[in-house]
Amino acid sequence: MIAVLPAFLLLAAANGAPAPAPAAPAAAVTAADLDYRKDGTGYLLVLHRGQPVVASLNAIIEKERIPGALISGIGAVEKAEVAYYDLNAKRYRTIIFEPSMEVLSLSGNLGTLDGKPIVHPHVVLGGPDFNAHGGHLREATVSLILEIFIIPTAEPITRELSKDFPELRTMKQLRPGS
């Protein structure tokens, strides 16, 4: 089945096509590059035009040593690489939304995988056609502004590679034996 998408979208990896080549790596992001503050028990992160979303969240996890958190955000991004896990193929299908789109919802969690920071973000994007598109956010560049609240959890969030589904990094079992 062929997906029919608005002309303003660039579709990649649909129907078995190879995923797009990764963009050239951006300069490393550090917390010193970011506009954020401690806000009660959480943080408020405001990303500005040109800043990467996922790399910025990773920088906050590292600097503030956040072992687990929930995230929620709104704003606008471009060059958004969004993925959907195809259970039958056991791999991600990826699409890149090139133009600026509104972030109707950014949600997910922050944690660690093998002791390193990991961001597990999902996004719903709205475009000029007033349709919504969403999935797992791999990376995006802020096109206007993005406001993200980071609410730490009481306990760490740790992830591991799934034994049954390649590419998935699932949350470790919370209660052993259950």
Task: Explain the overall architecture.
Strands 1, 2, 3, 4, 5, 6, 7, 8, 9 and 10 form a ten-stranded mixed sheet that branches. The N and C termini lie far apart (40 Å). The protein is globular. The longest helix has 12 residues, at 53-64. It has one helix at residues 53-64, and strands spanning 10-11, 35-39, 42-48, 69-86, 91-97, 101-113, 116-126, 132-152, 158-161, 169-171. With 178 residues, the chain is mainly beta. It is built from one helix and ten strands, in the order βββαβββββββ.
Give the uncertain stretches in residue-range form: 1-25
What distance lies between the first and last C-alpha atoms, to the nearest angstrom? Answer: 40 Å
How is the main sheet built?
10 strands, mixed
What structural class do helix, strand and pairing data support? Answer: mainly beta
Rg is: 17 Å
State mean pLDDT (0 to 100 scale). Answer: 86
SSE succession: EEEHEEEEEEE
What is the percent of helical residues? under 10%
Please indicate the percent range of residues in DSSP E strands (runs of 2 or more). Answer: over 45%
Number of helices: 1
**Could you say which overall geometry the principal axes of the C-alpha atoms support?**
globular
Number of strands: 10
